[in-house]
Structures are given as C-alpha cells and as structure tokens.
Write a structure and sequence with these properties.
single chain; alpha/beta; four-stranded antiparallel sheet; binds arginine
C-alpha cells in the first residue's frame, strides 16, 4: 500500500489549487476509514483547511472530482463524505499486492536498513552457579527476538551472553565450598548443589558476618590469580554452562560469544588507568568513583575500597573491547528495568571519557514476570525455575494435543514447540516495559490471543495447501469479498511492522501483528470456501493461504517460536 500512498500524495498535490500542499506531509494524513463501506483510505480534510483556506467539504469534493477525472492507478473511486476524502482501492491493485507478496516469498518483510552495519546484543547473561529462573526469561526471549529482527533488517548481528561470572559472589561461593562443600557431590548433582551452597552462605553469613570478609578475601585471591580458587571457579562455571545450554537448546537460541564478566578482569586495570589519566576518578571514602552529580545521577562506582572492580567497571571495559573488536554501529543491552540507572551511569562515563559513540549504546529495559499473580521471591532460593516452567508448559500442551489430535505424528516435538511457544508468545504480547503475568489457562488456550492459537492458524494454512498444492493463475479482473480484501491489507503491513519493531526494540509489535493475521485469516477461512470455489476465486484464496503461511511463519519465527506444519 505504501507505493499507492506515494503516488496518491503526488497526484493530490498536483490537483488545481493544491500547490500549497507538500506531498510528504500529505502522506502523513492518510488514515483508514471506520468501516470498509466507506473505502480503504481516508483523508480528514479539516487538517488541510488552514493551509488551503477552504472548508473541509470543498476540499474533499474538489479532490474527489479531480481524482475521478484523473485516476491514479489502483484507486477505483474517490468520494467526499462530510469533509473526508474517502478512497476505494481497486481489487486489481489488491491482487497485484498479493502477487508481489508471493513473489518475494520468504523475503517479504525484510528491509535493508542495517545493510553494512553491525549490531552487538548483550542478552540473557545469567549469573553462574544459579539456576536459570523466570527473572531471566525476559532478557533471553526479548533479546533473541531483537537480534532476529535486526538480522531480518540486514544487520550483521553478534549475540553475546555476558555471563555473570565475576565478582564478590564467587568469593562467597568459594567460602561456602571450603566450609561445607564437596566436589564429588557438586559434580554429581550439578548446579542445584552450587545453588544450595550459595543460599547456605546467605543464611550463615547473617549469623556470622565474618564470613563476608572471608568472601571478599577469597574473591581478591581470585582476582590476583590464586590457582586453587581459579580451579574452583572454572568448575562452577563449567557446571553452570552445561545446565544453561540445555535451556538454550530447548529455546533454539544461539550465541556468538560467551565472553562474560571474567573475560574482562585483565582488561580492567587499563580502564581504571585511562579514567584516572582523563581526570575522571575521584576518591570517596576510599572508593574510586566518577562523579555524575552534574547529570543528576549518583556517582558511578569504579573501585571498591579494597581495590576490587565493580559491575560498572566491567561493563565499561567490555564496551571498549567490543567497540574495538566488532566496530559496532549499536550495542544493545537487554535487562530488567531495575538496571536502568546502572546503564545510564556508565553510558555517561563513556561519553565523559571522550568517546563519540556513547549514543550507540542502547539499554532496552523490560518489566517484571510473575506466575498466576505471584511475584518471584529471589535470594531465598524460592524462585520459579525456567526449566520447571517449560516442563510444565510442554506437559500441559501435550495433554491438550492428546485430547484434540491423539494420532498426531511427532507428538513430542509438537508439544515442545507449542508449550514453549505459549510461554514466549505470552511474554512478548504486551509492550516489554509492562509487567507480564502467566496464567496457564490463558496462555495455553487454543482460542485466545496465544501462541497455540497462532501456531494452530499457521498449521491450518499448511493443511489447506497440502490438500491443494498447485498454484493457479490469478484472474485479470478479480472481484474480492470483504474478508479477502481485509486479509491482503493486514498482510501487506508486515514490512512496516518489522521496521517499527526494530526502531522501538519492541518484539510485541510482531506478536500483535501475528494475531491480526490470524484473526483476519480465520475470518476469511470461515466465510470463503476454497475447495468448492470456481478457478478464479480458488486461485486468489490459495494465494492468500500461501501468503499467510509465509508471513505468519516469518512473524512467529521472528519472536522465537517454532512453526510445526501439523498440530
Ligand atoms: N548478569 C546480569 C544479571 O543477571 C545481567 C548482565 C547484563 N549485561 C551487562 N552488560 N551488564 O543481572
């Protein structure tokens, strides 16, 4: 429709008496009329009254008369309706849009805004020795989708899992291990044993705060290269990663790099030196900070009193290294909104260091997750684990499939795709900054605004095409019904939606678009018979099913869902 809008604005601006209009600002006035009988495109002419010094009714009727005498290809009729210029798109034009969609195939919706550009995205990034919990779901799936959307837009993408594998908490774990741990048990039980030790440290250090000093000392030893502590730390990391990989495999998520916080430990002294040389470091009660009061922010902490580095220090070192290594055009960080200040602070420090790429650093925050209204209690070890969440989802999806389609081949892999898809879809349904709540009955309902509903609609399009695989020639003079018209309009919006989702770092634009496609497709399916239709109608209807399969498939995969052809 965009091409049509472009030629329309040119035509309108060249109508007599309209030279005061500028085609590009005209394009912004195009709207959709409230009902299809009123046309497909509308312009509220009162918005032009001031420039043209005429009443809306006069403008609308002049423009309608002009367009009817000097037709624009694709527009069948123009009308004045009380100061609104209503335009009717011809069915021939619509079918040509459908043709273009089908010709583009799997490329439809792609764009080249990222051509020749590199984006780096830091996402998921769990802290080792802890099980993945629901708090990491947001960054993992939002980050994955943002990466896929950028790739779809021509960017070359580097996905980084910036593992939290450095800091005093690993001193705590070393202390816990030395007091209460057993290596064989850790190797046998895995990450749960590490987690148990970590939680135990928490409760024990409340009784005996001396343990905290011990932990700081052990981390200091780790930072200065103590062999035994390094060996333990490597074991903690290896065991944790093995566990995380299972979740990533299940989600179909891949990373290009696992350079976590520890990777930067030897790069930190140079950064601290640079900050000092640039006159940015200040001593504050023995700690080194960068003062940000001028920017209305608390100071950015660089070194603790004992000289050990902090989270912001490591982020600054990592950003400098990534800029050199990847020469990114943007570097995106996906974390919960709770970390917004942290990012704002160290982004500022990068600017103060004199780097002109501060504005290439982007923080993408998101809201909290809860299950059936219950917030997640962290720290106590009483958290909802991602594995459990997914296992539940897959089991529940399997039960529904057994009921609806007991003979399904590949039952297990479909149950996995649908269960996990339900969780992802539900999490990406609203703007990312909003809090997400899982309600199992809602998320798994095949009739609601859910992943299963969208995947099922996709499978329906596949099933229609399996029965009628041949492509028939489109009629030269088509006559479309309202459901067909609407479906073409909805499908043709895909490229704009991709652009918007990338620009706003907002996968939910695609989730909601997928729902629009499903709803429009199901309305079409319920009112337009396919197998019994005449050859002209059948050609267009099968073409529509093929376009739905392509576009809905692309949209769902862009938010990280799998698209089984049979459910
Ligand atoms: N490991 C951190 C956490 O679990 C998230 C890291 C985000 N990325 C970054 N570059 N700071 O909270």
């Amino acid at each position: 429709m965009n091409n049509l809008k472009e030629s329309l604005s040119k035509a309108l601006a060249s109508a007599p008496g309209m030279d005061a209009l500028d085609p590009s600002s005209l394009a912004e006035l195009f709207d959709t009329p409230p009902s299809p009988e009123m046309g497909d495109i509308a312009i509220a002419c009162f918005k032009l009254s001031k420039t043209l010094r005429k009443s809306p009714v006069v403008i609308a009727s002049d423009l309608a008369a002009y367009l009817n005498e000097n037709p624009v290809d694709g527009i069948e009729k123009a009308e004045n309706a009380g100061g609104y210029l209503n335009l009717f798109v011809s069915d021939r034009y619509r079918v040509s849009i459908l043709r273009a969609i089908l010709d583009a195939g799997a490329d439809f919706g792609k764009n080249e805004t990222g051509k020749g550009k590199t984006m780096v995205i830091d996402y998921s990034s769990p802290n080792i020795a802890k099980r993945f919990h629901i708090g990491h779901l947001g960054t993992t799936i939002i980050g994955n989708s943002i990466k896929l959307l950028h790739r779809f837009s021509g960017y070359s993408c580097v996905g980084i899992n910036y593992l939290g594998d450095w800091g005093t908490q690993y001193g705590k774990l070393v202390v816990a291990f030395k007091h209460w741990g057993n290596e064989n048990k850790i190797r046998e039980i895995g990450i749960d044993e590490l987690n148990r030790l970590y939680v135990l440290f928490g409760t024990e250090s409340e009784k005996d705060p001396g343990l905290l000093d011990e932990a700081r000392a052990e981390f200091n030893k780790l930072e200065t290269g103590d062999e035994e502590n390094l060996r333990l730390w490597r074991m903690f990391k290896e065991i944790s990663l093995k566990e995380y990989m299972k979740t990533y495999d299940l989600l179909g998520i891949e990373f290009d790099s696992f350079n976590g916080e520890s990777f930067y430990s030897d790069k930190m002294p140079a950064v601290v030196e640079e900050l000092r040389a640039k006159g940015l470091l200040k001593l504050d009660d023995g700690a080194s900070i960068v003062d940000l009061s001028e920017y209305d922010m608390p100071p950015c902490l660089i070194l603790k009193r004992d000289g050990s580095s902090l989270y912001p220090t490591r982020d600054i070192a990592a950003a400098l290294w990534r800029k050199k290594e990847y020469n990114f055009d943007k570097c995106i960080y996906v974390t919960s909104a709770g970390q917004s200040l942290h990012f704002a602070q160290w982004f500022k420090v990068i600017g103060l260091m004199g780097y002109d790429w501060e504005d290439q650093l982007v923080h993408v925050p998101y809201g909290t997750f809860s299950i059936n209204g219950e917030k997640i209690a962290s720290r106590t070890g009483n958290v909802v684990l991602l594995d459990d969440l997914f296992r539940d989802a897959v089991e529940k999806a399997g039960a529904i499939i057994d009921e609806k389609n007991p003979d399904l081949e590949d039952r297990d892999s479909v149950a996995e795709a649908v269960g996990i898809g339900a969780v992802i879809f539900n999490s990406l349904l609203s703007n990312r900054i909003k809090d997400v709540d899982f309600n199992w009955d809602e998320a798994l309902n095949f009739e609601g605004n859910t992943g299963p509903y969208a995947q099922y609609s996709y499978a329906r399009a596949c099933s229609i095409l399996r029965k009628d695989p041949e492509e028939l020639p489109f009629p030269g003079d088509p006559a479309l019904c309202p459901e067909e018209k609407e479906l073409i309009t909805v499908l043709s919006a895909f490229p704009e939606k991709v652009l918007r989702a990338v620009k706003e770092y907002e996968p939910s634009v695609i989730t909601r678009f997928a729902l629009d496609v499903c709803q429009s497709f199901n309305r079409f399916y319920n009112s337009c018979p396919i197998r019994t239709a005449g050859p002209d109608e059948k050609a267009v209807r099968l073409g529509l099913c093929r376009a739905v399969k392509n576009i809905l498939g692309s949209a769902l995969r862009l938010i990280g869902l799998k698209t089984p052809e049979k459910i």
